[in-house]
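Data card: per-record layout.
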Amino acid sequence: MKCRHCQTELTLPLIDLGTAPPSNAYLTQKTLHAPEKYFPLRVLVCTECWLVQTEDYAGADELFSADYAYFSSFSTTWLKHAEQYVANMAQRFALDGNSHIVEVAANDGYLLQYAKARGIPCLGIEPTTSTAEAARSRGIEIVEEFFGVKLAQRLAAQGKQADLTAANNVLAHVPDINDFVEGFAVLLKPNGVATFEFPHLLRLVSENQFDTIYHEHYSYLSLTAVKRIFEHNGLSVFDVEELPTHGGSLRVYAQRKDSGAHETSQNVMKLLERETEAGMSSTAFYAGFQAKANKVKNDILVFLIDAQQAGKMVAGYGAAAKGNTLLNYAGVRPDLIPYVADRNPAKQDKFLPGCRIPIVAELHLEQSRPDYVLILPWNLRTEVIEQLAYIREWGGQFVTAVPHLEIA
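The structure for this 408-residue chain is written out next.
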């Protein structure tokens, strides 16, 4: 396989998580009795541009279907993050009723609802029908397509260029990263700003966040790689912030290369230096990641088996994609975790892909009173523990498996 950015032959492995179905391909009662598609889940490192990427097996249309079940608005933490983002961007870049915000991967309108509330004209681009419809129900205009140069050119020709584009947790999800990034250079007004948020590869590797690896994530990103990709495709990075979201993310600010309206912040050079000092442009940085993931897999399996033998029930909480990676890699089935509770009605009464564990409403926790609740979206650990504090009433405890087994 060749690098999806620079076409260098890929030879350096990061991790091999075996095979698994797409992490958001939830099963219904009907499809439960049909075969599932499994794809190898192997990640490689480009030693030329240092883009970390999955091997190509599944196309975007197989991963982001019409009934895609990830709805951003079910996390109160994420809603607060989105509201603060809009407030900060409006202030920093003087956005008002004469401005135009375009969000790529607008999901269910979780972010643009706050732009709309401020009277800032906005447009969402969202290819999955289920979430696009949810956004439209909030009164947000949605273009239901995958984003790239062709769509950007069409929107620009319609007079819909942007003062600000937002792309949260989508840069990792695109198979053709060059076409995707170049689209922003086309869509931005001459002095426009593009922001991108994505999990930081430095945190992923150093903190053993291997469960954020799944087929929908084609790329795993450092600032080093992103800066190079952007410059190749008509954008220049002028600022970067480190965020706590998703276990540690970056928010990268970019502008058109032919503009240069915004001065480059010292934050950019400082973070590039940190990545270099960590060894991210060397093969040594990526060694040993497989062994760390294997330890997490073994530890959670030992815990689940010991709990079962002691007559204790372990329930799951949060039917998240990262949870599916963990459970499928560990080979966990309903005999060890009988159900996973989730607040999202679009996931309830379905089954996790691969491990086929039933997804139920949160009320099921109060009814069955498990001894342990395994929090699968560990990045929302604090929010979930506050939300489910009532399990303490019967002596229940919380468990997270990543970056290491922890019982609280």
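Known properties of this structure: The chain has two domains: 72-286, 290-407. Residues 64-68 have pLDDT under 50 and may be disordered.

See the next section for split statistics.
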